[in-house]
Amino acid sequence: MIYRLYERILLSDLHTLPEQICFMITGQDMLDAPDNLYRAAEWCRDLGIRSAMFHISTPDPARLERCLPRIRTISSIARLTLHYRETKEVRGEGMNVTVAIGKSGREEIACCVRRMAEDGMDPDSVDEDVLESYLTFKYEPDLVIKTGGDHLTDFLIWQSVYSELFFLDVNWALLRKVDFLRALRDFQSRARRFGR
């Protein structure tokens, strides 16, 4: 009952929302609370956030194979793009939700450089726009939310350079809507400078 009241208070105070959000969780988080992915995507959709991304950090993506059916249920409420191993699948309609399992930002940048070299790019012609055109994830989150005590990963290392970071003091398995709304309230109170 108290959380419902707190939710309503937080919702009434929200007036500036991020357009794009990235949640960073671990493989163990996903195994502990696989349904939270759907729930968080639903919260984003209901608030009118344009797109959400979930990065699941794991050195062994195969360990999360049993979670794939649950992840795919997101396509019933949104347009899901799932990156798993070397595959990419897209299904559903509505708000864009991307799930990337075991992907690395450093690996993505190295892949961009390799592809530019394969395409015979003149090094003098490489600038930020060219590099961005080679990125796998063309996604610049306004807000990156990290749950629990783990450190951030290198995922979206290029794309998130101007993102606002919010570290939740609760683990993914215990994530409630009020925790998410607290992150949004914090986001709207920040003066974004985009590196200036």
UniProtKB/TrEMBL annotation:
Pfam families: Prenyltransf. The keyword Transferase applies. Keywords: Transferase. InterPro entries: UPP_synth-like (IPR001441), UPP_synth-like_sf (IPR036424). It comes from the Archaea. This is Undecaprenyl diphosphate synthase family protein. It comes from Methanoculleus caldifontis.
